[in-house]
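DM from R.C. (forwarded with permission)

"hey, sorry to bug you on a friday — could you get me a structure for this? deadline for the figure draft is monday and I only need the backbone to look sensible"
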Amino acid sequence: MIRFAVTLALLLLLPGRAMAGGTFEDIREGDRLAQNGQLAAAIDRYTWAIMDAGNAENAGLTTQVLSTVHRRRGWVYAQKGEFRMALEDLNESLRLNPRDTLALGYRIRVLERLGLHDQAWLEGREKQRVLGRLDLDRGPSGRVLTP
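My reply, with the result:
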């Protein structure tokens, strides 16, 4: 609900913003800001990139790229200590790309910080399964049995 209100406010404030060209620029700028510790500004840039993808038919973002932007924004939220917001973004990243083991790893860390240790352990098992590292995923020959 909060995210919707922020998105609506941003859309009303800056309706003439360029879509496709600004999307990848926002992602790169978000990365730069996050690396420099400017977490709130990085979140804003990632938010613009996500909004651009939703508003422009030809924003140039594939599902994979959109998943990556949600993962990055989720991790920045986690760095700020906003674990619920981080969890929302990481869930969206995994919805878009269920095999994103980096997002799954970040999600495990966030769940642990929220005190959800049992769920984090189960997520760890899922990450191992996705990576093909569980014995249950191996056949008699030792080869990984993944879909």
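R.C.: lifesaver. The chain has seven helices and no strands.
me: no worries. The chain has one domain: 2-134.
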